[in-house]
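This section describes the prediction task in plain terms. A model, or a person checking by hand, is given the sequence of a single protein chain and must write out its three-dimensional structure as a string of tokens. No templates, partner chains or ligands are provided. The sample shown here is typical of the held-out split.
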Amino acid sequence: MKLPLHSGIGTRAIESEKRTGRRRDVLAAAAAAVLFAVAAVVGTLIQRAHHSLYVDWSPLYADWLPHVGPGTPAALAVAAAVVVHGQRLAVRLPWRGLLGTVWAASMAWIWSLALVDGWQRGVAERLTARHEYLRGVDRFHDIGAALRGFTGHILLTQPDHWPAHIAGHPPGAVLTFVGLDRLGLGGGGWAGAFCITVGGSAAVAILVTLRALGQERAARAAAPFLVLAPGAVWVGASADGYFAAVAAWGLALLALAATRTVRAPGAVAFGSGLLLGLTAYLSYGLTLLALPAAAVLLLARTARPLPFVLIGAAVVAGAFTLTGFQWWEGYSLLVERYYQGVASDRPYAYWVWANLAVATVVAGPACVAGARRMLSAVPDTVRRLRPGGPGAPDGLVVLTFAVLFALVVADLSGMSKAETERIWLPFLVWLLPTAALLPAVDRRRWLVAQACLGLLVNHLLLTGW
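The expected answer:
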């Protein structure tokens, strides 16, 4: 005989299950902290013995430098405001008001963390370093000629080779900053401000995607975590923060088109194709966005947007190809250039797991706990995805699992040895919504943990990006 749900035994069982789940959340976060500590110790030993990691504070590309700066009071104020008021506002604000508030708060958090290092060191000089994009802008006076000869300067053995970041990416990345320069917004200050402003909008795109997939409640619960992301340390000012936003809006438009929650789904799908196509010309690794894009179509149970998306992507690819840049040629030369540099020394056996330790810092402890709950929900979610399966699929679980799978592929590829705190930003931002899976009663504590981690990283370390 079944006991009623409100019986003493039933209630005790439910409470026990809740306590067990919450305990496992804490254990998952603690395990991530241990993983990072082990990566730091082992990395230090490897670096001292072999000097093969090429990072000064393994596993992060950073220097130990405790400091405060002009952004410190603002960062503390933003963190306190979001912790105290974020969850309440996320529930009560009208949807459009929530989107605007999240974008503004996200930019405030990124800006304040960047300015902890001061204007010059934290913003204006980030993209002017010797490996960065702005070092090659003056070589694009004739854009057509520069694109036609782009692959001829990728290898270190070739004359006048590109700086590392230009060589390591398709030309769409550097062309962004060439475009800013042509608009009269040249220099590191404008480039940094652009990356922070656009990068902050990634949080909005993620909210739009979740709501389009029927996950508005999860989106609202995740909103404060999207603002106080520890990864904001590397969004300001890093070109990869800009890449993350382009990728996020590409997926957001795809979700809107697939669920037909817009007036012109075909045009929106075409716009999604343009953005997703552009991501492939911003970073070679962003081709892995095909996995979360497929998850969006799976959740919407339609392939109707696909032709429009492919046309949009083909327009971007065609434009670059006609101007003389061959994507596959560029990628094959990049692989060769990659192993001409420090990647040939960096040990795969270390970075294949140390990268994951870095990911836990960028995503934060709340997302480690949320990802644990997401992974535990995958089997039931897969059963509901089957034709005729009971209930509706959990869009949050499916989408974030697809992103996590893409990260695993990137990690195993060996093309992401170190520096993943910025390289993986376009994927790691999508793990932030898993915090919505945590019990509501615990979210404020987890939000505090997220904010503290971001503040500690930015004030104890001088990050390289």
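For orientation: The longest helix spans residues 8-50.
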